């Protein structure tokens, strides 16, 4: 009774680890040799809790994110959040290098380099013509999921309401000691310390605006932003430009074929829930598979997870629309609605 997991990223490795722990046979395939792209990743408290439930201790990687600050493009503080106090001991948010996270997740898990080209029922075809039959197939292969395309077609993919694309990179830390975002009329710029030496940078537009794939867009958009932003733009490394696409599907299940993580419900990274929801999905699905009755596992999994995912999607849409307000109005209301929105979004996710 082997489960095929397509995708060797966070969702796929988390599911494989959880299945191995529950003595469920699993095979993992991944099409990309290099799975470390993405530079760093911000993990809110519910992500840290989910990794702990998976048996992954994050204390050796990255740095705790103890505070958030939302600032204007001129540096004025709109509001701050004490994340230590909100999440509590044992669930402190953390920013880690993606390569370090994948190394922890993938330790001891064999991953075969293969590309899925077709899924016909539970018969799977790989590039080169190889065909195998499995008892359960899981698409954990991200926004551009081959399993989703094969099983559900091309529907469900949409551009983010927040921004058409983003820039991500690493840079020497210019003296930032907490999660800090600066927002203006043209875009938003986020810096998160990864350790004492480097920060992870994320830049996007607002109101679904375009983000040119020329790095000159960064300099022209954020030229007047405060000195920490200008400092990292002077020394970026590993610049990555990519579209921000979301997945909204009426169902993630077709018989014994199930989508998890970004393949099922990718959202703009407003609340940094990609990894959190992926690992939560993996824990929930592995418990159900270990319990048997695989014909009904998919429906039970979706019933268990749909409300939580819908909450994150709705919160993402609300924030994206708020970010599209005229900048003067946004900065006027943010000190009032910002802390409230943070609490309303994250409080249900602490359970």
Write up what this structure looks like:
- This protein is of the alpha+beta class and 351 residues long.
- The protein has a domain at 3-63 and 94-160 and 245-325: FAD/NAD(P)-binding domain.
- It has eleven helices and 21 strands.
- The strands form five sheets. It has a seven-stranded mixed β-sheet with strand order 6-5-15-16-17-14-18, sandwiched between helices.
- A hairpin with a 4-residue loop joins β15 (179-183) and β16.
- α1 (10-21) packs parallel to α4 (98-106) and α9 packs antiparallel against α10.
- The protein starts with a strand and ends in a 5-residue tail after the last helix.
Compact summary:
The chain has 351 residues and is of the alpha+beta class.
């Amino acid at each position: 009774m082997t489960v095929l997991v397509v995708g060797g990223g966070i969702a796929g490795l988390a599911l494989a680890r959880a299945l191995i722990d529950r003595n469920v046979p699993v095979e993992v395939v991944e099409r990309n040799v290099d799975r470390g792209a993405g530079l760093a990743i911000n993990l809110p408290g519910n992500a840290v809790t989910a990794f702990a439930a998976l048996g992954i201790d994050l204390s050796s990687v990255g740095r705790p994110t103890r505070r958030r600050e939302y600032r204007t493009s001129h540096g004025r503080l709109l509001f701050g959040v004490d994340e230590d106090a909100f999440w509590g001991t044992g669930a402190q948010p953390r920013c880690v290098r993606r390569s370090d996270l994948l190394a922890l997740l993938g330790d001891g898990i064999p991953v075969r380099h293969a590309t899925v080209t077709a899924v016909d029922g539970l018969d799977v075809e790989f590039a080169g013509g190889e065909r195998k039959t499995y008892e359960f197939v899981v698409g954990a292969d991200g926004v551009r999921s081959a399993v989703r395309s094969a099983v559900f077609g091309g529907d469900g993919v949409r551009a983010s309401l927040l921004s058409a694309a983003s820039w991500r990179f690493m840079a020497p830390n210019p003296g930032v000691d907490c999660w800090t975002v600066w927002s203006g009329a043209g875009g938003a710029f986020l810096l998160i310390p990864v350790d004492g030496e480097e920060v992870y940078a994320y830049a996007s537009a607002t109101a679904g605006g375009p983000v040119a794939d020329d790095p000159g867009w960064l300099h022209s958009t954020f030229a007047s932003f405060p000195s920490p932003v200008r400092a990292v733009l002077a020394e970026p490394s590993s610049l990555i430009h990519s579209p921000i696409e979301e997945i909204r599907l009426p169902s993630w299940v077709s018989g014994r074929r199930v989508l998890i993580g970004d393949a099922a419900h990718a959202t703009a990274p407003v609340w940094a829930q990609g990894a959190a929801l992926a690992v939560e999905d993996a824990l929930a699905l592995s418990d159900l598979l270990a319990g048997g009755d695989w014909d009904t596992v998919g429906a039970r999994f979706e019933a268990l997870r749909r409300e939580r995912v819908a909450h994150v999607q709705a919160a993402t849409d609300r924030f994206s629309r708020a970010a599209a307000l005229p900048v003067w109005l946004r900065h006027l209301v943010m000190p009032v609605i910002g802390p409230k929105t943070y609490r309303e979004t994250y409080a249900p996710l602490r359970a």
